[in-house]
Design brief:
Blueprint lengths: L15 H28 L7 E5 L3 H7 L5 H4 L2 E6 L5 H10 L1 H24 L4 E3 L1 H9 L3 E7 L4 E7 L5 E7 L16 E7 H11 L3 E5 L4 H8 L3 E5 L5
Parallel strand pairs: 1-2, 4-8
Antiparallel strand pairs: 3-9, 4-9, 5-6, 5-7
Bound molecules: zinc ion.
Zinc ion binds next to loops.
């Protein structure tokens, strides 16, 4: 929508005071129209989580401060950002300049998700954790949402030993060079390895299962990392 609000400085014979009042009225009317249109469009977006307002100059701050938007939309505003343009490039610029807000929103979502996970766990709800159990649940088609920490670093490694033995283990990457032969107790030699995170994610994706990546930016994310860094919300309980 284009503003028809007149410029700040009076033209012609009107007193500045009268002119300011006319300008304020026009601005108010424009804000009201923009808010009405924006609210109508945004209320239809059922999956919309947050709103960021952007624009050049002080107008956007006024628009936000005076709560022109429908209260449901206004409540979702997580920030107001200064940008250069008001066209589609402006939208792009807004996304770029809002990385901090988006990051924060993602962490909030992650916190809530992990809190829900631990509450379920405490109450014996439909959750699993740890590589083995999560993999089992995934293969049984029981996983609703797979949770995987960015710090999850398990690998499946093929080893051999100079004594002739070969073996395969699923272990954290940090333990790979600490493995000893069960036959002769020599240090095992790594022959090749597969990232288990990739395998779990591929499996989930092929089943159409939702995957949530958990960062280590929040205390909840770190708690989850300590709890093996992999887990899931289940559709049903596994026996
Ligand atoms: Zn050996």
């Amino acid at each position: 929508m284009e503003s028809t609000v007149p410029s700040k400085t009076v033209k012609g014979g009107m007193s500045q005071k009268r002119y300011d009042r006319i300008r304020d009225d026009a601005l108010n009317e424009f804000f009201r129209k923009v808010a009405e249109e924006a609210s109508e469009l945004l209320l239809k977006q059922e999956k919309m989580k947050n709103v960021i307002i952007g624009g050049p100059g002080p107008v956007k701050d006024m628009f936000y401060r005076k709560s022109y938007l429908n209260y449901q939309i206004q409540n979702k505003v997580i920030g107001v950002k200064d940008i250069g343009s008001t066209d589609e490039y402006g939208l792009e610029e807004l996304v770029v300049k809002s990385q901090d807000l988006l990051q924060e929103a993602a962490i909030t979502k992650e916190r809530e998700l992990i809190q829900k996970f631990f509450t379920e766990l405490k109450n014996g709800g439909n959750v699993v954790y740890g590589y083995e159990d999560t993999k089992k649940a995934l293969e049984a088609g029981a996983v609703e949402t797979l949770l995987i920490s960015e710090a999850f670093n398990w690998v499946r490694v093929k080893f051999r030993c100079t004594c002739g033995i070969t073996t395969e283990k699923e272990i954290p990457k940090t333990l790979v060079d600490k493995q000893k032969c069960s036959n002769c107790n020599q240090k095992l030699i790594e022959e090749g390895s597969t990232e288990l995170a990739d395998e779990l994610i591929d499996k989930a994706t092929s089943l159409g299962t939702k995957v949530e990546y958990i960062s280590t930016e929040s205390s909840e994310g770190n708690q989850f990392k300590e709890l093996s860094g992999v887990g899931a919300f289940l559709r049903f309980k596994l026996s």
